[in-house]
Design brief:
The chain is of the alpha/beta class and 394 residues long. It has one domain: Alpha-Beta Barrel (TIM Barrel), CATH 3.20.20.370. It has 15 helices and 13 strands. The strands form 4 sheets. Strands 1, 2, 5, 11, 12 and 13 form a 6-stranded parallel sheet that branches. A 3-stranded parallel sheet has the order 6-7-10, with helices on one face.
């Protein structure tokens, strides 16, 4: 490892909440989101000239039954000293585009549906991939392998989406006709990504997010069975104007970048320094991910060894290791080899972690928030079936 990278790994751990215990959190974004429907959809969009900008455009699909089975097998093969398996905190959306309703209205208006309806439809459209997948999702939650938290109502920017609909944007219409929302360009806005739900052009547009946040949190509770208290925006970008709205909906913890390039409106930005344990004006605690694990991202890295170095740096400074990842690393619906690579790396990482730090403790991201804020009481207060076996975090 280069001296520069080693200094960076240590520098990002110098400030923040500390503990002598070795906690590991897996914060994994994008669950519940329909991005790419199928191989057939990708082929049709390729033939229409739509670009594959990144691995998300190529491989990221709603998690299938096989995706979940393989993930749960990997997580279930390891236990910490308290008898707890590694736990994913999937930052998940509860809603997706209602492709059928939009087709029926001639792609005039935006329509969305609950994730449970999405799974019901896909179970009929593609039973080998999706039949039983939602039941397996719920089983993983009961077993404490998955503790989802709020990632927004849906993983798209409504302002950009609606404007593209109005213009009959060929990229958007082609994607929708293929039950997908991917390979979409930003168009005229330098400040808005098509998949960043809380991006905006003018600052006053943040007011429009109130309804999205409140209906999204209500939908999250309906889909996943409990109220979320932890949030990260799609692509990690939201303005502090939304924090009171999130607090109103029950959000106590916000994941945020260490150095956040915060849009102020009109293309003007300021850089904000954050750290785990920082409290904003609403009394919400920030959590900053200090480890990155993206095993299907081809950067010429040995991701297992690089991630171990990051965990080592976190523990050296008595910091929890908050591992950032994305669902695409564990998706095999488009290309099974993609899932095999991701899970093989995850399995190897977990075994090496247990070998090096047998005292490690696996917890969910919202539990870490409860520890930092002092809200955690004991495992008997947990809202999820399957937490009864959790270690007491007093």
């Amino acid at each position: 490892m280069s001296l520069k990278r080693s200094l960076l790994l240590n520098a990002k751990n110098t400030i923040g909440w500390r503990t002598s215990r070795k906690f590991i959190v897996f914060a994994v974004d994008d669950y519940g989101n329909v991005r790419l429907h199928s191989k057939g959809a990708r082929k049709a969009m390729d033939e229409a000239g739509m670009k594959v900008y990144n691995r998300f455009d190529a491989y990221d699909t709603l998690e299938t039954r096989e995706d979940l089975e393989a993930l749960f097998e990997t997580l279930g093969a390891v236990k910490d000293e308290n008898g707890r398996h590694p736990v994913f905190t999937p930052f998940a959306v509860p809603c997706n585009i209602d492709f059928e309703a939009m087709r029926d209205n001639g792609y005039e208006d935006y329509q969305y549906e609950l994730l449970t309806e999405t799974y019901s439809k896909l179970s009929a459209i593609d039973p080998p991939a999706y039949e039983g997948a939602w039941d397996l999702w719920k089983k993983g939650m009961r077993q404490g392998l998955m503790v989802p938290q709020f990632h927004g109502r849906e993983h798209l920017n409504l302002k950009l989406f609606r404007e593209k609909l109005q213009k009959r944007d060929p990229e958007l219409i082609t994607a929708l006709e293929n039950r997908s929302y991917t390979s979409i360009s930003s168009g005229e806005y330098d400040t808005i990504s098509p998949t960043a739900a809380f991006d905006f052009d003018k600052r006053e547009e943040n007011r429009d997010f109130h309804d999205v946040i409140q209906t999204g949190l209500d939908a999250f509770e309906e889909v996943y069975g409990y109220r979320s208290n932890h949030f990260i925006a799609p692509r990690g970008q939201e303005h502090p104007d939304t924090h009171p709205m999130l607090l109103e909906g029950g959000i106590s913890y916000i994941d945020t970048p260490l150095l956040k390039k915060e849009h102020q409106g009109g293309g003007k930005y300021k850089t904000v320094f954050n750290y785990t344990g920082k409290v904003n004006s609403c009394g919400q605690h920030f959590i900053v991910r200090n480890v990155v694990f993206e095993p299907t991202d081809e950067r010429g890295l040995d991701w297992v060894e690089f991630t171990l170095k990051q965990i080592e740096a976190a523990f050296r400074w008595n910091r929890p290791a908050v591992i950032s990842s994305h669902r695409v690393n564990f998706c095999g619906h488009i290309e099974e080899e993609n899932r095999k690579i991701g899970l093989a790396a995850l399995r190897k990482l977990l075994l090496k972690v247990m070998e090096r730090w047998p005292e490690v403790e696996f917890i969910s991201s919202n539990e870490l928030g409860d520890l930092i804020s002092g809200r955690f009481r004991d495992s008997s207060t947990a809202m999820y079936e399957g937490h009864s076996g959790n270690a007491s975090l007093n």
